[in-house]
Design brief:
By secondary structure, this protein is an all-alpha fold. It has one domain. It is about 75% helix and about 0% strand. The chain contains 17 helices and no strands. It is rod-shaped, with a radius of gyration of 54 Å.
Length: about 375
């Protein structure tokens, strides 16, 4: 699997200028998030599976386009918007004249940056650019834009006319910036003007807060930037290679895409884990039920076997009982049996009764004859 997001994140480390300088600026901006380098994709995702799913999410057209747009913002005009503010801060530190001179191109660049931010957010959030402010990296992008592209470059405007003149730069130069962005990003960049309407209120609100923090912001830049950049003389050399030296938008843009995709990857990984746990639970329940059925069937079979065995035993006893009765019964002799055996017939009770009856009859007859005689 192509690790586009992993590769993009790996281009930046905690010691890079594009990480250190924004962190310093944010320390004096009350509306900026507390920012630290988020680390590798695996560190952000917390598991290999969540990181894998985050990479899959980063392949969507919206995420891919967002990365491309943030890359364009750092390459536009050789980093004029980024380095004019920082260079001006260092010149002010060195007490050079013309420290805050602003070219109209600076205004176009400021409008170009906010249009690009809106377009990238519109692409990443699938048409809902307002969600940009709901993410930590999104708030970091907006804070950096206000500090580096509005407050520092237009410090003289801030001093003279306040936030209205600063935010007016966006309104004034948006048409020219939109045409320039379309030339850089193609016809799809037309969505940037629609997307800008969704975040413009947030941007202007943050700009008002940025103007209030202009003093601390300029003070930090004058004091810290020379040391951070390795000396004031390093500014001109860095400005010549702005896209490589300070790719802040690409850095924060990568962090934003990673934040959104990691959240999706973590959610999907958790859903997969929950589904697997439910599957395992159902499988275990089915297995337990099968074991119960098997045990029930076994017991029923054993009961039937015992019943059949008992019935066979009863049949055996019943079959053996008649033979035993014949052996123990007394032998009775009958006339028929004697005759069959060739033995003299034995007279029974009926024979005795016949003899007595004959005697009685003869006696009665003798008495009768005597009476007649």
């Amino acid at each position: 699997m192509s690790a586009v997001l992993t590769t993009a994140i790996a281009e930046f480390s905690a010691g890079d200028l594009c990480v250190r300088i924004p962190s310093g600026l944010f320390s004096v901006l009350p509306f900026a998030p507390a920012w630290t380098h988020p680390g590798s994709l695996l560190e952000q995702a917390g598991s290999a599976r969540a990181a894998e799913l985050a990479e899959e999410a980063a392949k969507r057209e919206g995420a891919t386009r967002a990365l491309q747009v943030f890359g364009l913002l750092d390459k536009a005009d050789a980093g004029i918007a980024i380095f004019s503010g920082l260079r001006g801060a260092v010149k002010a530190y060195r007490k050079e004249d013309g420290a805050w001179e602003v070219d109209p191109q600076q205004g176009v660049d400021a409008a170009l940056k906010v249009l690009g931010i809106a377009w990238a957010a519109w692409s990443l959030y699938e048409g809902d650019a307002a969600k940009l402010a709901s993410s930590k990296a999104g708030r970091a992008i907006l804070a950096w834009y206000v500090a580096a592209d509005l407050v520092l470059p237009f410090a003289d405007n801030v001093a003279e006319g306040g936030v209205g003149l600063v935010t007016g730069v966006i309104d004034r130069y948006t048409p020219d910036a939109a045409a320039q962005l379309a030339a850089m990003g193609g016809p799809d960049a037309a969505a940037s003007t629609t997307a800008l309407a969704a975040i413009l209120g947030t941007v202007k609100g943050l700009a008002a807060q940025g103007v209030q923090a202009a003093g601390p912001l300029n003070g930090w830049a004058k004091e810290k930037l020379p040391g951070v950049l390795g000396g004031a003389d390093a500014i001109s050399g860095a400005a010549a290679t702005a896209a490589d030296a300070l790719s802040v938008y690409r850095y924060f843009g990568t962090a934003l895409v990673a934040e959104v995709c990691v959240a999706e990857g973590v959610a999907k990984a958790a859903a997969e884990q929950a589904a697997k746990a439910e599957h395992d639970r159902a499988a275990a329940a089915a297995q337990a039920e099968a074991l119960v059925r098997e045990e029930t069937s076994r017991r029923e079979a054993e009961a039937k076997n015992r019943e059949a065995s008992a019935q066979r035993e009863d049949y055996s006893l019943a079959a053996a009982e008649p033979a035993s009765s014949l052996q123990n019964a007394p032998i009775k002799y009958t006339r028929q049996s004697d005759e069959k055996a060739g033995l003299p017939a034995k007279s029974g009770c009926f024979g005795c009764a016949g003899v007595m009856l004959a005697i009685f009859v003869l006696g009665a007859a003798s008495t009768a004859w005597a009476a007649l005689g």
